[in-house]
Structures are given as C-alpha cells and as structure tokens.
Design goal:
Layout: H1 13-45
Length: 56
Amino acid sequence: MLKITSISFVHDPDAAKKWFNIFVEIVADHMLEKASNEYEQQHIMKPNTTMGESDE
C-alpha cells in the first residue's frame, strides 16, 4: 500500500520539480509492482492456459 502522510509547500521551483519527479517515480513503481503481482496471481490460478490463448 502507498500512503502519503504529508505534502508541504516547496519554495524553490527546482526543488519542487525534483520532489514531483521522485513522487511520480515512486507511484509508477508501486503501480507496476501491483500489476505484476496481479498478473502472477492470474497465472497461478490458471495453470493450464498459455500466453496468447483466450478463455472464450
């Protein structure tokens, strides 16, 4: 789970850009990790299907 506890006003525009870029990177990493975990769970639950096959 990703939780932000506090965001403060940043007076320096360059520092604000750096903080925002780091924040976006953390959120993106969290989303990729979550998607990867969900993908793994789908494969564990459907061991007889292979990539490219549909359930239809």
